[in-house]
Specification:
Blueprint: H1 2-27, H2 33-55, H3 59-63, E1 66-70, H4 79-94, H5 98-101, H6 112-117, E2 119-123
Antiparallel strand pairs: 1-2
Helix pairs in contact: 1-2, 2-4
């Protein structure tokens, strides 16, 4: 997760910081906080959902040879599954990591957002 966080900084720098810095420098305007937050959530959502749907792996997951798959079919995630996993992962993190800590008590060592969205992370050999 730490490595994923570092990669997200690059994604956000390209899609968030640069446009807002240019808006501020050229037109001397700043977007309201809720617009910036919505922008971050949408950009990260596009990043994760697109990569999870494409080949089941984000850039960090490729490095660690992890793959996300449907727990139901064992194949690619459906769009509703990917969107649900993304939405639930925010709650997993924002509630003091409770959804992440869930894996310590889960019989299959799944995160709470994986359990609820019907997905699982597997080791790709």
């Amino acid at each position: 997760m730490a490595y994923e966080g570092l990669l997200m900084i690059g994604v956000l720098a390209a899609t968030f910081l640069l446009p807002y810095v240019l808006l501020g420098m050229i037109w001397q305007i700043a977007a309201p906080g809720w617009v910036e937050l919505l922008h971050i959530v949408l950009v990260l959502g596009l990043y994760f959902v697109w990569l999870w749907r494409r080949d089941g792996q984000t850039l960090a997951m490729k490095t660690w040879r992890l793959k996300l798959e449907s727990a139901i079919t064992g194949g690619r995630l459906s769009l509703p599954q990917a969107l649900l996993r993304y939405a639930l992962s925010w709650f997993s993190l924002l509630f003091f990591g409770a959804g992440i800590l869930w894996a310590f008590f889960d019989r299959d060592r799944q995160f709470l957002h994986d359990r609820l969205s019907g997905t699982r992370i597997v080791f790709k050999e």
